[in-house]
Amino acid sequence: MLFLAVTLGFFVENQREHYIEKQRAKQFAASLTEDLKNDVSRFGSIISSREIKKETFNTLMDELEKPPGNQNDSLIFQITAENLLNRSNIIPSTGTYQQIKNSGSLRYIEAGIASDLVKYEGSLEMLEASFDLDDKYLIENVVKLREEICNPKYLRLKREQKTFIVSEPLVSKNVIIQLELYKALNFLQERNQIYIRQMTTTRARADSLISKLKKYYSIK
After folding, report:
1. Which of 66, 90, 176, 183 has most Cβ atoms within 10 angstroms of its Cβ?
2. What is the full DSSP assignment across the chain?
3. For the whole model, what pTM was predicted?
């Protein structure tokens, strides 16, 4: 009898722990789903802004291909001054996932979903590395080019949001400097396309995770 009582007690305790783990996993799953929904929304916004950036840079490159005397200096100045150094990046909602990892609770999550979460984390790390590479190139190369192309006096007035009357050339007509800017834009366009592809893949993984979490844990 004592043996049966001990065995039954162990069984009940095991079932209770299993129930608690299952409830905890569902709570984590619901929170993960919300985090992933936020990421998907941000991905969409950033991809859209990056597509706009691609078209803006194409416009600038088209202008630089023209003979210096036929170029629209105001357009070159505007794009170079306002858009050349701007870049958008994802700040993912990883709070729940980090909590799961740090607390050792990843074992509560269904194995296939847990594996997909690790892959998703890898995609986010690739996006961050890609952004850091672009940032390094901008700092080391494009910042100087921007200063060489745009009249620094007008850059300052624009930065200080002051109205100014153009009495000097807005942009440099030095063909070597313009060619260097064109080359830099080519590189930035390639990097932008890579980033968009990486982000599209990462968004697809987030969408897939949301579907799996909802289905497996019956989340509405």
Report:
1. 90
2. -HHHHHHHHHHHHHHHHHHHHHHHHHHHHHHHHHHHHHHHHHHHHHHHHHHHHHHHHHHHHHHHTS-GGGS-HHHHHHHHHHTTT---------HHHHHHHHTTGGGGS-HHHHHHHHHHHHHHHHHHHHHHHHHHHIIIIIHHHHHHHB-HHHHHHHHTT------S-SB---HHHHHHHHHHHHHHHHHHHHHHHHHHHHHHHHHHHHHHHHHHHT--
3. 0.85
